[in-house]
Amino acid sequence: MLESALEALQILVSPQHVVWLFLGVGIGLVLGLIPGLGGLTGMAVLLPLIVGLEPASGIAMLIGLNAATTIGDTFPSVLMGVPGTAASQATVLDGYPMARKGLANVALGAAFTSNMVGGFIGGIVLLVLIPFARPLIVGMGSPQLFMLTLLGFSLVGVLARGAVGPAFMSGLLGMLLATIGSASMTGDYRFVGDVFYLYDGLDLSILAIGLFAIPSIMSLLTQNQSVAQKMVHQRGGVLRGARAAFGHKRVLVGNSLLGSVLGIVPGIGGSVIDWITYGATKQAVRSGRDQFGKGDIRGVMAPEAANNAKDGGVLVPTLMFGIPGSATAAILLGGFATMGVATGPSMLSPENLYLVFVIIWTLVLANAIGAMSSAALAGTLSRISLLKPYTYGPFLLVIMVIAGYQAGVRWGDVVAVVLIGLLAWLMQGLKWPRPPLLIGFVLGSGAENYLWISVGRYGWTWLTEPSVIVIGVVILITLTAGFTGVFGRLYARFAPVETLIEPTKESSRG
Amino acid sequence: MVSLSAVRIGADGVLLAVFAAAATISLLSVDSPTYWFPAFITVSGTLAAGYNLVADLLRVRAGHSLTEGEIVDIGASVSDTHDDTHDGTGSEDGTGSLAGRILALSLWLVALPLLGLVIPFFYASLIWLVALLRFQAKQKWLFVVASVAVFGVVLNVLIVLLEIRMPPAILTGLG
């Protein structure tokens, strides 16, 4: 095993492969920077280019791109309040308020440190779990997956900050939108009327751009004020953020592990994992919980660490069973097939083991290179928060509309992006929470499919399975916490007053 | 002028109607498994929307505004202001009311796809940018021309490298 690890490292650090890795990371960072164009676009474009490449080089480029996209997407999330990809939405919650306080470089420093540590831990989890993953994946049947989607939805209550009713209504609206189009299990069409465009259902990327990116830019243009008036730390802000991140080791390591484990579960993508880890962190922290959403550095770290760590987890079922854990993993599988790499249990055979290590090393190196490159750029790019919105906003609107068109290459996509953008802007003005709508949309189709399979296969007896009951209890606890805020009140009652104040100051200052 | 609270009550009503209509469709077809899950969602949504409408009406009746207070939201908002600036009703350059600017920008956004219906989208977006930056943002011609030219080159490079497809001008058949 050690021999394979060293052989893989030797292959990977050879100049030829390093060039491919840097190319993948470079493209990934640029794609992450442009709102609406995610790693999926990049991997789909790169796929034809890897034909004829050695497996190690092709793997280096594809995984490098995928890892770097989730690092580059932090820039627009923090600096403009525009999620760079669907997986960086929760980062906006605290990253953007930090930028408004002139702490953009601190937030970016903390985010990139979390990306790097998350990617490292994700690689370790991949290494450790591959031999033991089988029972975990086999144990995850449709009933458990259905309950996990409900658990994800119940976090809407935790995120609601008091407005639990509107949050659940928004979440249910998201689920309703997810049911539009063809029912995947019967093929019948629902809620489409005579609108041909709706037959394929709504696309996640269109909804994400319309819900968050367009309203944010429109608001900035309306105000015509720079995001921040001045930088609090003209120099050393990024380093300060990195130090602050290491000061919250539990948040860093805990969310990296949680992200890795959630990544293993097929179907739970980054767009849900970031919200789950954000909500879980908000519930788990001992102090300053009310600072979440107002510029708490832990709210930036949690989703960023989990987002990069999940890439390691996603690769466990992808490599072991050929089950793509996400859309990007599906393209990755296609890439492996193109290069003649067979996934499945044979990956662990002695002659193929070095490839597993190539993947692990690539994941770790890509995250390190991506995070360090981004950190080097962060000082300069964070000055975007000092620019007037008209110097970049209109250009981003054009890019978002074009990005929306790529979803289905239909004129209806352009109309849908603009329409959803304007409606979401109205929602924001009316104080209707928008994040639950997206969570409901993402979880809706999965929940229906898993429920369908569970009932079809087990009747209703699956409800009595111990694992289902355990997840059910966790859901009830989460819902109770969301509706009553009971944990926060209990802690406030028993916690010493000074611990509630000190870390809050520190966390918001970084 | 209609208050935001009144608009929200109206929106609550619209959403209740949407959920109720979807619930009716789902329940009428509930014998088909296609509508089992939608029935569950829409009935829950109807209850939640009804609860919200009643709760909002009660809050308005008690004299509270429905658009004050905190919710979890992400990104920039029109109500964002810097602490040491003004009240958020006017832009930094002081042009126009907040409502007027929101309406104007909404129309500008709608204008982009409308322009794209008659001119190939690449050129439509450049024309739209020039018009918006010059006439809405009142930027200097030098900035407008230089920034749009640079953007055009970068966009073209991205279109070629990433094989990005652009919407055709379907009304004129161009593009």
Question: Can you walk through the features of this model?
Answer:
The complex is a heterodimer of chains A (510) and B (175). By secondary structure, chain A is mostly helical. Chain A contains 23 helices and 2 strands. Chain A has one domain (2-509). Chain A has helices at 2-12, 15-33, 39-46, 55-72, 74-79, 89-100, 104-129, 133-139, 142-159, 164-178, 204-223, 237-247, 249-264, 270-284, 297-321, 327-338, 353-381, 393-405, 411-429, 435-458, 466-484, 486-494, 497-509; strands at residues 181-182, 189-190. Chain A is globular, with a radius of gyration of 22 Å. By secondary structure, chain B is mostly helical. Among the domains of chain B are: 4-61; 98-161, no CATH class. Helices cover 62% and strands 0% of the residues of chain B. Chain B starts with a helix and ends in a 14-residue tail after the last helix. Mean pLDDT of chain B is 87; it is low at 86-90. The chains are: A mainly alpha (510), B mainly alpha (175). Chains A and B meet through helix 3, helix 6, helix 10, helix 11 and helix 18 of A and helix 1, helix 2, helix 3, helix 4 and helix 5 of B.
